[in-house]
């Protein structure tokens, strides 16, 4: 069943039936913003209360809220000024103005009286697939040591994610939640695993000494030039498991994926430091638009 997207100013909650309408437009976006995929929007629909509308002939509008503040996305294009002013009046801010939109529209937005600011906490980290797959050179010395220690300590196996081994991945996810004592992205991760096929996602499951030990899940973005890793979980009883998964999954990806998008750090200093140790070659820069 295909569900049409309502026309602005009407909004409707994002549902699985909207995939055929939303996926083509989002898949053609070239900037590579990790949030702007159907699977990401769908899997986090409850966390952010996502609802969607469309401005005929112009763009999609996706609204949500975080920490009590309302925001909206314009993934494809900006609408005419009248509609944009209405959206800014009814929401606290525009989130994730893309690099191409920023280059094209920043001056106009500022002339309209809005503030356009860099949103560093939401920059997506970009890595060369070959760098993560090879871990060569002095910069990756510590990563190589951790991976080599893992390889020398355990008997391991990598399997493509299939319906048959989804329960194994969920077992790792359950262990992750229990060990952390938090929900985190558990609900989105689990649904991503359970519905990976219909959402167009792909991944791998990792085994240590025959037991499920980790998994990774993501999807092609930016016209399939880039691969976004949305979820990655491992059992921390195995030292080096995350470094191993990072490298093994990069090696398993087809070579036509030259870049891997490992999403944002959300302002978490520990996560930022960890992401920087993998030496990103760049970022998908995002901007926020607010009223003065």
Overview of the molecule:
- The longest helix is centred in the middle third of the chain and has 15 residues, at 166-180.
- Strands 1-2-3-4-5-14-6 form a seven-stranded mixed sheet.
- It folds into two domains: 12-123, 3-Layer(aba) Sandwich (Aminopeptidase); 125-263, Gcn5-related N-acetyltransferase (GNAT) (Aminopeptidase), CATH 3.40.630.
- With 292 residues, it is an alpha+beta fold.
- It has twelve helices and 14 strands.
Provide a compact summary of the structure.
Helices cover 37% and strands 26% of the residues.
Topology:
Blueprint: E1 12-13, H1 19-27, H2 38-43, H3 45-48, E2 51-55, E3 59-66, E4 69-73, H4 81-90, E5 93-97, H5 99-111, E6 115-118, E7 124-128, H6 129-134, H7 141-153, E8 156-160, H8 166-180, H9 186-194, H10 196-199, E9 202-208, E10 211-221, E11 226-234, H11 241-252, E12 259-261, H12 269-276, E13 282-284, E14 287-290
Parallel strand pairs: 4-5, 11-12
Antiparallel strand pairs: 1-2, 2-3, 3-4, 5-14, 6-14, 7-12, 7-13, 8-9, 9-10, 10-11
Helix pairs in contact: 7-11, 8-9
- H/E element order: EHHHEEEHEHEEHHEHHHEEEHEHEE
> What Rg, in angstroms, do the CA atoms define?
20 Å
How widely separated are the two ends?
A: 43 Å
Number of domains: 2
What structural class results from the helix and strand content?
alpha+beta
Total helix count? 12
Query: Which percent band covers the strand fraction?
Result: 25-35%
CATH class of the largest domain: Alpha Beta
Q: What does the overall shape look like?
A: globular
State the total count of DSSP E strands.
Answer: 14
Q: Unreliable runs, pLDDT <50, ≥5 residues?
A: none
Q: What oligomeric state best describes the polypeptide chains here?
A: single chain
User: What is the fourth-level CATH superfamily of the largest domain?
Assistant: Gcn5-related N-acetyltransferase (GNAT)
Architecture of the largest domain, CATH level 2?
3-Layer(aba) Sandwich
């Amino acid at each position: 069943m295909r569900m049409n997207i309502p026309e602005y100013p009407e909004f409707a909650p994002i549902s699985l039936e909207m995939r055929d309408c939303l996926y083509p437009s989002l898949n053609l976006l070239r900037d590579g913003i990790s949030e702007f995929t159907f699977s990401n929007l769908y899997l986090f629909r409850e966390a952010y209360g996502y609802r969607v509308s469309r401005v005929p002939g112009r763009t999609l509008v996706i609204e949500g809220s975080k920490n009590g503040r309302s925001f909206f996305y314009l993934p494809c294009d900006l609408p005419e000024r009248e509609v944009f002013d209405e959206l800014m009046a009814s929401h606290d801010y525009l989130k994730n103005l893309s690099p191409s939109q920023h280059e094209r529209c920043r001056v106009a937005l500022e002339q309209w009286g809005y503030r356009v600011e860099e949103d560093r906490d939401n920059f997506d980290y970009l890595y060369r697939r070959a760098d993560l797959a090879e871990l060569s050179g002095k910069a990756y010395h510590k990563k190589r040591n951790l991976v080599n220690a893992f390889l020398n300590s355990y008997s391991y196996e990598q399997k493509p994610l299939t319906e048959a081994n989804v329960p194994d991945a969920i077992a790792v996810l359950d262990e992750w939640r229990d060990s952390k004592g938090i929900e985190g992205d558990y609900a989105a991760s689990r649904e991503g695993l359970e519905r990976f096929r219909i959402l167009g996602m792909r991944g791998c499951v990792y085994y240590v000494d025959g037991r499920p030990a980790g998994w990774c899940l993501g999807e092609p973005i930016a016209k399939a030039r880039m691969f976004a890793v949305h979820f990655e979980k491992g059992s921390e009883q195995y030292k080096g498991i995350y470094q191993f998964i990072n490298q093994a999954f990069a090696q398993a990806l087809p070579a036509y994926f030259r870049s891997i998008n490992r999403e944002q750090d959300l302002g978490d200093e520990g996560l930022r430091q960890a992401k920087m140790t993998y030496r990103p070659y760049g970022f998908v820069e995002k901007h926020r638009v607010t009223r003065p």
